Amino acid sequence: MTDTPPDGQEEPANAGRDILRVEHIAKSYGVVTALTYVNLRLERGEVLGLIGDNGAGKSTLLKILCGFQQPTSGRIILEGQEVVLKSVDQARSLGVDAVYQDLALVNQLTVYQNMFLNREVVRWPLVRNRIMRKEAREHLDEMGVKIPSVNSPVAMLSGGQRQAVAVARSVFSNPKILLLDEPLAAMGVKEGAIILDLITQLKHEGNVSIIIIAHNYGQVLEVCDRVNLIQDGRISLDKRSSETSAQELTEMVVAEYRKALEERHRAAS
Question: What is the pLDDT of residues 196-222, one digit of tens each?
Fold first, then answer.
C-alpha cells in the first residue's frame, strides 16, 4: 500500500469489490499532524482490523469516516462515488455508522428504549412501546444477543451486554459500514467473547462491512479478515489476518516506539 500521492489516478484492480476507499487522507491540527496520506480500503462484507499504538491516528481516521471531523486533504470514495462527509447525520444517511467507547446509551432507559432512541415508533399521540419492545426483542434474538429482558435498564447490564446492545442498535438501522472504536476495551475474557461472537456472526451474514479498532492483536486476528497497522499517521502494514501474527504486529509497534524515543533523544540533545 502506498502512502504518498500517486502520479496517476488509476483505479485499483480490486476497486469493484471495495465498498469504501480512503485515498491520501491527511489531517492536521495546527502544527500537529495526526494523519499523513493514509490509504485504506474496505471490501464488501469484510471485517478490517485497524491497530496501532496510542496516538497513531486510529480514532482520528474513524472520526473522519463517520463525518465527525473533516480531513485536511484527501478523498473518501463510498460505493464508487467520491463523497464529502460533513456531519455524522450525513454519514449515517449514506450508510456509515459508528459505535464509540462511550456507547451513547442512556442508563435510565430500558434496552428497548435505547434501541429506538431518537427514532421511536409513534402513532400520534402515543409512543408505541409494545411494538418497540417486540421489534427490539426479535432483533436481539436474531443477532444472538442474550439480554434477559428488553425492559431492563441498560445500567443493570454487564459491560459486554451494553456493548452488544450498542452494536445491535447500529445494525438495526441497516448500515452498510459499521465502525467500532475499541469495542473490547477494559473487558474480561467472558464479556469480550460476547462481542467477538457478535462480530463473527455479522461477518458470516455479510450484510455489513466493519472496521474495528482494537489493541488485543490476538482478538483482531481471530475475528478480522484483514489487518491494517497505522503508525505515525500512515498505514505501515496491510495483510490478510492469515498472513501475519500477533508477534509480528507487536514487533512492528515496539520498533516504531523505540524509533520515536530515539528521535526525541536526538532532538533534545
Answer: 999 999 999 999 999 999 888 888 999
CA gap 76, 27 in Å, rounded: 13
Q: What is the DSSP letter of 10?
A: P
Distance CA 74, CA 54 (A): 23
240 close to 225: Cβ distance less than 8 angstroms = yes
As given in the structure block, the three cell numbers for residue 268 are 533534545
**For the chain, how big is the Rg over CA atoms in Å?**
20
Residue 46 to residues 5, 17, 65, 187, Cα–Cα distance (Å): 26, 10, 16, 24
Q: Which single residue is written with the C-alpha cell 449515517? A: 92
Provide the b/e sequence for 168-186 (b: ≥16 CB within 10 Å): bbbbbeebbbbbbbbbbee
Distance CA 38, CA 22 (A): 7
Grid coordinates given for 189: 475474557
Whole-angstrom Cα distance, residue 19 to residue 69? 20
pLDDT digits (tens, 9 = 90+) for 239-264: 999 999 999 999 988 888 788 788 88
Q: Read off the pTM.
A: 0.85
3-state secondary structure of 102: coil
Q: Give the Cβ contact number of residue 125 at 10 Å.
A: 5
pLDDT tens-digit series, residues 164-208:
999 999 998 899 999 999 888 767 778 888 889 999 999 999 999
* Residue indicated by cell numbers 462481542: 195
Give the burial class of 246: count Cβ atoms within 10 A of its Cβ; 0-12 exposed, 13-18 middle, 19 or more buried. Answer: middle
| C-alpha span between 109 and 9 (Å, rounded) | 50
Q: Alpha carbon 72 to chain centroid distance?
A: 21
> In angstroms, how far is CA 123 from the centroid of its own chain?
34
Q: Which grid cell is 257?
A: 516506539
